[in-house]
Amino acid sequence: MTEDLGNQAEVLAQQLSDTINEVLDGEHELTLQHMQSRYVLEPRRRSEDEKMPSLELRLPKDSDRIGRHQFRYEMTLDHQDEYLKVDLSSCAIRAESDGNALLRLDYVQATMAGKRAPVSRWQIQAHHNAFANWLTRAQASSRRAGNRSGRVDKIHLTVGGERFRPCMEDVLHLLVTDFGVAKKSGHMRAIENGRARWREVQLRSAVRDNPAVAAEALTQCGYDVTPVSPKTPRVEQHTHY
Amino acid sequence: MSPAVIKRTHTQEDLRKKRALLLERIGLSDTSDLEKIAHTRMLSEEEEAIAYELESIAFLLGERQPRIG
């Protein structure tokens, strides 16, 4: 099983590497570290001086680095010891000018996330007086709400939970469209192919979580679905914040 | 696997050794010391980078995930 898990981890690493290299200008290497049944995937550290491993981002026709795309996937076996699952994925777009994370997209599996924070969330580095005013007043009225600093980046913007969260391809899409980073020709096809692959994997997981709903939907589509040895559903996957 | 993905296999021993070296670099002996610092002040750039690596090591070792910074 560990060998199979290793294959799954290597396939995922290779697919992500291919997509990144088909989208972002330049050549980018990833490192897949593992010990027994645990895997960590992140960009390759280019030198010992590099503080955090990340992909370099440049604007077209500009040799200076504008920012960095830092990410890490932590993976192991799922609850049935059959499939590779991501325990945590962490992604940050950092500005070269001051190293700050302008955007973060984090996912922590539900059992580790706690009840307050959504399992999948964007955090945005920004400032707006109206936000600050609201957040500080919210905290004054309830310790569990808002934040004393009034900082927008402390807000966890929930996005889709465990199964319907954004993928790496969504971040790459954002980088090449809104952030205008240098890209390769054919990048959009690579993004769309990778996104379709991701959503198919997530759909399979969602079906395994709640096969009765999947069977009902298939029946509505004209399929004849007969349960042979149904597994216990994991409907709670769809209720987490 | 093409050279775009470099695979590294670790043992418990080399991960623990690496963790000790990282902590030594910032004059600490235990991960919890860094967690305590993170609760009292902003981590320096180097401390933050080391905290980031320590999280990976803790995960690979199957220890509870420290959430630093």
What does this structure look like?
The complex is a heterodimer of chains A (241) and B (69). The mean pLDDT of chain A is 89. In chain A, a hairpin with a 5-residue loop joins strand 5 and strand 6. In chain A, strands 1, 2, 3, 4, 5, 6, 7 and 8 form an eight-stranded antiparallel β-sheet that branches. In chain A, helix 5 packs across helix 6. Chain A has one domain. The radius of gyration of chain A is 20 Å and the shape is globular. Helices cover 34% and strands 23% of the residues of chain A. In chain A, 27% of the residues are buried. With 241 residues, chain A is of the alpha+beta class. Chain B has 69 residues and is mainly α. Chain B has one domain. Helix content of chain B is 58%, strand content 7%. Chain B contains three helices and one strand; from the N terminus they run βααα. In chain B, helix 1 packs antiparallel against helix 3. The longest helix of chain B has 16 residues. Chain B is globular and about 40 Å long. Chain B starts with a strand and ends in a 9-residue tail after the last helix. The model of chain B has no long low-confidence stretch (mean pLDDT 86). Classes of the chains: A alpha+beta (241), B mainly alpha (69). Chains A and B meet through helix 1, strand 1 and strand 2 of A and strand 1 and helix 3 of B.
